[in-house]
UniProtKB/TrEMBL annotation:
Subcellular location: Membrane
Gene: LOC110744758
Organism annotation: Prunus avium
Name recorded for this polypeptide: non-specific serine/threonine protein kinase
Catalytic activities: L-threonyl-[protein] + ATP = O-phospho-L-threonyl-[protein] + ADP + H(+); L-seryl-[protein] + ATP = O-phospho-L-seryl-[protein] + ADP + H(+)
GO molecular function: polysaccharide binding; protein serine/threonine kinase activity
Membrane topology of this protein: Single-pass membrane protein
EC code: 2.7.11.1
Domain (Wall-associated receptor kinase galacturonan-binding) ranges: 38-98
Signal peptide per UniProt: 1-24
Keyword Glycoprotein attributed: yes
Any GO CC annotation of this UniProt entry: membrane
Length: 306
């Protein structure tokens, strides 16, 4: 059976191990866990709240839709991953581009686009969706549904079919526009916010969010313009940004976290880092006091037992 001094020694070692780990963490400057994924840019695009560059950045409602991958800001939906080409924070809009979406310079077969109704994004009314290379039996041409704009839409179709890129979907330049449909419905046929081209019997689609020089389709702006919900700001986030921090979240409850430039996370703003660091110093003093007390007790007990 171990002596009293041996027992105290074992207890001391058992207590020192976790205390040493905590002390080492403090010496490394990590008083609060660090999130190294949060940045204020992704490539050349500024990233501001409610968006973030990785998990724990921005608002949790957006984390499944927006991420930064290899310097490219990406938008994810059920139909794929798209590149975000621009963000206008004043109007709360983003423009995404589908690499398989047709433009005047390049047309190709594509799969379509969808947007979850529960997402914090909506499709802006400025978007003009155009279905290209559609079968004459396509449901979009059902006269009872009235899904194609046959007024100004005809000019859009003629403009697109004048592009050399139509060869990519098996059409000749200036082909008859009977296989083109300027889609009047953003909700698709029996689905949510979706364009499912196999179901619509169309080869490709494009989206025009700005015409510019309307007579020249090479100058049209192709992409999908989305409006996002900008009602997520809180006073805590405003204080965080005012202190040059980035708003994010942490923990299982996804509670608010202010991510500061030195990597320290706080619950309010980076101006409060001093309190966090003071806590770290105080904890380190307490740890050293406990360690010292245990060592003295062990030495006294060892001396008396001799």
């Amino acid at each position: 059976m171990p002596s009293a001094s041996e027992t105290l020694l074992l207890i001391t070692i058992f207590l020192l191990l976790p205390l040493h780990a905590v002390s080492s963490t403090i010496h490394a400057g990590h008083a609060i866990p660090i999130n190294g994924l949060c940045r204020d840019t992704c490539g050349t695009i500024p990233v501001k709240f409610p968006f973030g560059t990785g998990f724990g950045c921005g608002h949790p409602d957006f984390v499944r839709y927006i991420k930064c991958s290899s310097g490219t800001l990406q938008f994810s939906t059920g139909t794929g991953i798209y590149t975000i080409s621009s963000i206008d924070y004043n109007s709360s809009t983003i423009v995404v581009t589908d690499p398989l979406m047709s433009t005047c310079s390049s047309m190709q077969n594509s799969g379509g686009f969808s947007l979850d109704r529960a997402s914090p994004f909506t499709i802006r009314e400025e978007n003009i969706f155009v279905l290209l290379g559609c079968s004459t039996t396509s449901p979009v041409f059902d006269p009872n549904e009235d899904l194609c704009d046959t007024g100004s839409g005809s000019r859009v179709c003629r403009g697109l079919y004048s592009c050399k890129g139509v060869a990519g979907i098996g059409l000749q330049q200036n082909a008859p526009i009977s296989t083109c449909c300027v889609y009047d419905s953003q909700v698709g046929v029996g689905s949510g916010y979706a364009l499912v081209l196999p179901k619509l019997q169309c080869s490709s689609y494009t989206s025009i969010y700005e015409f510019g020089d309307e007579g020249d389709p090479m100058k049209w702006k192709f992409g999908i313009s989305l409006q996002y919900n900008d009602s997520y700001y809180t006073n805590a986030c405003k204080d965080c940004e005012a202190s040059e921090g980035l708003c994010g979240f942490s923990g299982l409850d996804q509670s608010f976290a202010c991510i500061c430039q030195n990597g320290v996370n706080t619950t309010r703003s980076c101006f409060e880092q001093g309190y966090a660091l003071s806590w770290a110093v105080e904890l380190e003093v307490q740890i050293k006091t406990i360690i010292g007390g245990l060592l003295v007790s062990w030495m006294l007990l060892l001396t008396r037992s001799r």
